Amino acid sequence: SQQGEEDPQALSIQEGENATMNCSYKTSINNLQWYRQNSGRGLVHLILIRSNEREKHSGRLRVTLDTSKKSSSLLITASRAADTASYFCATDSYNTDKLIFGTGTRLQVFP
Amino acid sequence: EADIYQTPRYLVIGTGKKITLECSQTMGHDKMYWYQQDPGMELHLIHYSYGVNSTEKGDLSSESTVSRIRTEHFPLTLESARPSHTSQYLCASSEFLPSGTGVAQETQYFGPGTRLLVL
Questions:
Q1: Distance between alpha carbon B80 and the CA centroid of its chain, in Å?
Q2: Labelling B2: which of A31, A41, A69, B89 has CA 20 to 30 A away?
Q3: For A64-98, how does the pLDDT look when each residue is reduced to its tens digit (9 = 90+)?
Q4: Would the CB atoms of A42 and B110 count as touching at under 8 Å?
């Protein structure tokens, strides 16, 4: 399977702490994206990083990409209870016409 | 919020019934997708479409069928529902943007999903 893997599978933290989740993938990519999914809802696009970029910021989100290790990390700083959701990475590459989604990390932020 | 809609949001039906899950988007996107997702689990691509009159099977084998007669509409049909079809079904459409690297960036926009329970 080309599917990416994320770890941890689940993460529980207190409000105000930082949350870091990781994504590993198997093939060379063009872009890597992170999506968020609230319980029982569809996914929402958060941020995209290109294969020639190493780090990108958007508000409290920081994404890094290490193409040599085929991995990415998503850091959410100063987490809030409203950040509670599942987070998925997704990759696209030259040899596929679909996004490949990771297995997801379930984040629980306690007030 | 993305302009992509799914109906019904929740559906409870008996085994053997025929059902159609509706998906519509008003963004003019050509590419659309159907995913199946069990609660808290990964997404499985079951169908996608490049545009009108195009339908392709995804990575996960599914007994459902799809059609794409209009750009904005991508319904999914189960001819005879079974308890094993109980799941959440997510519809998505894609926007492609130039990235400056010669390869377009694809961003998917998801509907809110349909939760299906087959008794």
A1: 18
A2: A31
A3: 999 999 999 999 999 999 999 999 999 988 777 78
A4: yes
Q: Could you give the angle at the alpha carbon of B49 between the alpha carbons of B42 and B82, nearest 5°?
A: 55
Output the six-digit token pair for A60: 């409290």
Residue B42 to residue A90, Cβ atoms within 8 A: no
Task: Check if A99 contacts B (Cβ < 8 Å).
Answer: yes
Whether the CA torsion B34, B37, B43, B45 is positive or negative: it is negative
Distance from CA of A77 to the nearest CA of B (A): 23
Q: What is the pLDDT of residues A4-22, one digit of tens each?
A: 788 899 999 999 999 999 9
Confidence band of A107 (pLDDT split at 50, 70, 90): very high
The model's pLDDT over B33-53, given as tens digits with 9 standing for 90+, comes to 999 999 888 899 999 999 999
Q: What is the pLDDT of residue A1?
A: 46
A-chain CB neighbours of B59 within 8 Å are 98
The residue with tokens 């003019």 is B28
How far is A34 from A47, CA to CA, in rounded Å? 6
Residue B117 Cα, gap to closest chain A Cα (Å): 14
